[in-house]
């Protein structure tokens, strides 16, 4: 990658114009006409293109993995808009790296096509049933795995009930996976690996539970075959990738590239995976992926220190009208709050991994969060708190309670989320709905202003935590103070304790 120079009139991105891109812009050196799909990826968002697709592109640049190209796919209406944009530019993507002191761009081309987005997922099922597809990967967000409050498979979800009753015309990605595996088994073909690339603790195990649980509802024999033959590797993925808007599109144009869906990202990536691929895989380790038997250690460190750390900052930042995570870290009160909660209540519940202590990892996260070039909005980070708090923050809280530790900091994190879900910032401006469960969260948050227990009684999120007296009392104290004295005064009161 190279430093940007003044760009001429932007070149419309597509295969035919790759040679016309400005000098110094890295682009595919391989013949994209030779690409053959080996992976179907469901959920082609910014993270996938900046992470998994980039690692595969690196291999292709060396002349390897040309039979592992990615077929994009989606199961939501919003995926159709991404499909239209990417097909118009031959599934090429501009990646723009935002380091603290420089910016650089490259064009990647590991995706060879994008399947039609259909209500019955017919094209997706047919593609996955093709034995040439050896991996099906997913980025469907942390909340997209149909889990209940305890982390188990939610067999009662309406979409799951639909897919169990109509397995040939499923609504969900998991229903489509089950249908494709059924076809492969019936045809005598081998299975594919199902690989989650979402931020979930034990993401492979969670994916296995959802796929086999759904199959069990409609075809127990198929479920047994899946359990015995399909692999679900656990993996830890990491790269901060902001959403794309007009500023990012303009930035790509400044590099001389007319890209309808460019991606900006930080100058850091990590991917740790376990070796569990029933139908083979690309040689990702050649591109920098770590193959490890201790994925759980890596993912726990990342999910607790980085992902939970994001939740420590985002709700407070939203309430104070602070636009980005980097701006939060530049605020002395917020950064002090973040540092204290991390060091006193999160880091003690993370064990070291080979070559990295939790303390050193926290230092890395502080530097990454503080990068002013990354305009990662507090709104994006706070999105889907009902999944992110349940998955990232509350497991730490439970561990801390079990150890008899102080939970005042984590209780304040939860109180900030409850106050944010009331729907107004401290300056009186409205917070637009920012969660799939926003209506219920908003009602509980407003009721909790008078009765804090109304928030903790959301059992789908908190389970039995309302009965944990040290947490419930601290939560009620902080929530009352947030309403009476405001965010900054409450944070300062915590920091003085």
SSE layout and pairing:
Elements: E1 2-3, E2 11-12, E3 37-42, H1 46-50, H2 52-61, E4 69-73, H3 77-87, E5 93-98, E6 103-108, E7 111-114, H4 122-129, E8 135-138, H5 158-165, H6 173-187, E9 193-196, H7 203-218, H8 220-229, E10 235-238, H9 246-254, E11 257-258, E12 263-266, E13 270-273, E14 290-291, H10 295-319, H11 325-330, H12 332-346, H13 358-369, H14 378-382, H15 385-402, H16 408-420, H17 438-448, H18 453-456, H19 459-462, H20 469-485, H21 487-496
Parallel strand pairs: 2-11, 3-4, 3-8, 4-7, 5-12, 8-9, 13-14
Antiparallel strand pairs: 1-6, 5-6, 10-13
Helix pairs in contact: 4-6, 5-7, 6-7, 7-8, 10-12, 10-13, 10-15, 10-16, 12-21, 15-16, 16-20, 20-21
Give an account of the 3D structure:
It comes from Meinhardsimonia xiamenensis. Residues 294-474 form the Mannitol dehydrogenase C-terminal domain. The protein has two domains: 2-293, 3-Layer(aba) Sandwich (Rossmann fold); 296-496, Orthogonal Bundle (N-(1-d-carboxylethyl)-l-norvaline Dehydrogenase, domain 2). The chain has 21 helices and 14 strands. β5 and β6 form a beta hairpin. The chain is of the alpha/beta class. The radius of gyration is 23 Å and the shape is globular. The mean pLDDT is 96. The longest helix has 25 residues, at 295-319. It has helices spanning 46-50, 52-61, 77-87, 122-129, 158-165, 173-187, 203-218, 220-229, 246-254, 295-319, 325-330, 332-346, 358-369, 378-382, 385-402, 408-420, 438-448, 453-456, 459-462, 469-485, 487-496; strands at 2-3, 11-12, 37-42, 69-73, 93-98, 103-108, 111-114, 135-138, 193-196, 235-238, 257-258, 263-266, 270-273, 290-291. The strands form four sheets. The chain has a five-stranded parallel β-sheet with strand order 7-4-3-8-9, sandwiched between helices. It has a four-stranded mixed β-sheet with strand order 1-6-5-12, sandwiched between helices. It has a three-stranded mixed β-sheet with strand order 10-13-14, with helices on one face. α7 packs antiparallel against α8 (220-229), α10 runs antiparallel to α12 (332-346) and α10 crosses α16.
């Amino acid at each position: 990658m190279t430093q940007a120079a003044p760009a001429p009139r932007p070149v419309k991105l597509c295969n035919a114009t790759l040679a016309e891109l400005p000098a110094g812009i890295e682009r595919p050196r391989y013949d994209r006409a030779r690409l053959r799909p080996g992976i179907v990826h469901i959920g082609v968002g910014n993270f996938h293109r900046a992470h998994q697709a980039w690692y595969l592109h690196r291999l292709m640049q060396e002349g390897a993995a040309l039979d592992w190209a990615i077929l994009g796919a989606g199961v939501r209406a919003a995926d159709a808009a991404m499909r239209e944009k990417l097909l118009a530019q031959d599934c090429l993507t501009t990646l723009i790296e935002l380091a603290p002191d420089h910016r650089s761009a490259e064009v990647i081309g590991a995706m060879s096509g994008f399947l039609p987005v259909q209500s019955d997922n017919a094209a997706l099922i047919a593609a996955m049933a093709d034995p040439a597809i050896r991996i099906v990967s997913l980025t469907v967000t942390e909340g997209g795995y149909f889990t209940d409050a305890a982390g188990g498979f939610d067999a009662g979800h309406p979409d799951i009930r639909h897919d169990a009753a109509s397995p040939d015309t499923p609504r969900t990605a998991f229903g489509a996976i089950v249908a494709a595996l059924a076809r492969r088994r019936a045809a005598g073909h081998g299975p594919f690996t199902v690989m989650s690339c979402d931020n979930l603790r034990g993401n492979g195990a969670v994916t296995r539970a959802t796929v086999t649980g759904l199959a069990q509802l409609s075809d127990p024999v198929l479920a047994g075959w899946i359990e015995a033959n399909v692999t679900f590797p656990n993996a830890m993925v990491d790269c901060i990738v902001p959403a794309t808007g007009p500023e990012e599109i303009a930035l790509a144009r400044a590099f001389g590239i007319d890209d309808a869906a460019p991606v900006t990202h930080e100058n850091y990536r990590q991917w740790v995976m376990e070796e569990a691929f029933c139908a083979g895989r690309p040689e990702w380790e050649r591109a920098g992926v770590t193959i490890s038997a201790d994925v759980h250690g890596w993912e726990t460190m990342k999910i607790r220190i980085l992902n939970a750390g994001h939740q420590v900052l985002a709700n407070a930042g939203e309430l104070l009208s602070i636009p980005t995570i980097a701006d939060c870290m530049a605020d002395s009160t917020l950064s002090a709050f973040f540092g204290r909660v991390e060091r006193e209540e999160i880091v003690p519940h993370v064990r070291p991994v080979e070559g990295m202590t939790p303390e050193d990892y926290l230092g890395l996260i502080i530097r990454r969060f503080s990068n002013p070039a990354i305009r990662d909005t507090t709104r994006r980070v706070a999105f889907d708190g009902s999944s992110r708090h349940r998955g990232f923050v509350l497991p730490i809280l439970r561990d801390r309670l079990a150890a008899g530790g102080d939970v005042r900091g984590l209780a304040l994190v939860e109180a900030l989320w409850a106050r944010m879900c009331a729907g107004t910032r401290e300056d009186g401006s409205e917070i637009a709905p920012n969660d799939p469960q926003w209506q219920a969260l908003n009602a509980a948050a407003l009721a909790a202003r008078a009765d804090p227990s109304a928030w903790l009684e959301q059992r789908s999120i908190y389970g039995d935590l309302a009965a944990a007296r040290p947490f419930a009392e601290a939560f009620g104290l902080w929530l009352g103070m947030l309403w009476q004295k405001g965010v900054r005064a409450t944070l300062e009161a915590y920091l003085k304790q």
